[in-house]
Amino acid sequence: MYLGITPTVTCNNASRNEFSLILDKNPLVEFVEELPTGRSSLCYCNLLCGIIRGALEMVHLAADVTFLQDRLKGDSVTEIGITFLKKLDEKKYRRKK
């Protein structure tokens, strides 16, 4: 919502703890013209994974967030895989009064 994009959500897991976000348009691609020579393993879009992981931690959910496809690597779409690991303990994060 904040980046001006709407992903397509796909879930092919029977246990319903994994899903993918497919971005037809990745706003970060506009800021990177070409990967530097010898640095093809760089993943500029990992910033999005960190944002999603951080947002889920704010609502007390631990998740593994990884890139499955990346337009900067020549794929047709950007796909982010999300696997829910566990619900975090809320007591640990509460403020003491």
UniProtKB/TrEMBL annotation:
Pfam families, per the entry: TRAPP (PF04051)
Taxonomy, superkingdom: Eukaryota
Gene3D superfamilies linked: Trafficking protein particle complex subunit 3
Major localization class: endoplasmic reticulum
UniProt-annotated location(s): Endoplasmic reticulum; Golgi apparatus, cis-Golgi network
Keyword Endoplasmic reticulum belongs to the record: yes
Matches recorded under SUPFAM superfamilies: Ligand-binding domain in the NO signalling and Golgi transport
Recorded GO CC terms: endoplasmic reticulum; Golgi apparatus; TRAPP complex
One GO BP annotation of this record: Golgi vesicle transport
Keyword Nucleotidyltransferase in annotation: no
Keywords: Endoplasmic reticulum, ER-Golgi transport, Golgi apparatus, Transport
Function comment: May play a role in vesicular transport from endoplasmic reticulum to Golgi.
Family, as annotated: Belongs to the TRAPP small subunits family. BET3 subfamily.
Protein name as annotated: Trafficking protein particle complex subunit 3-like protein
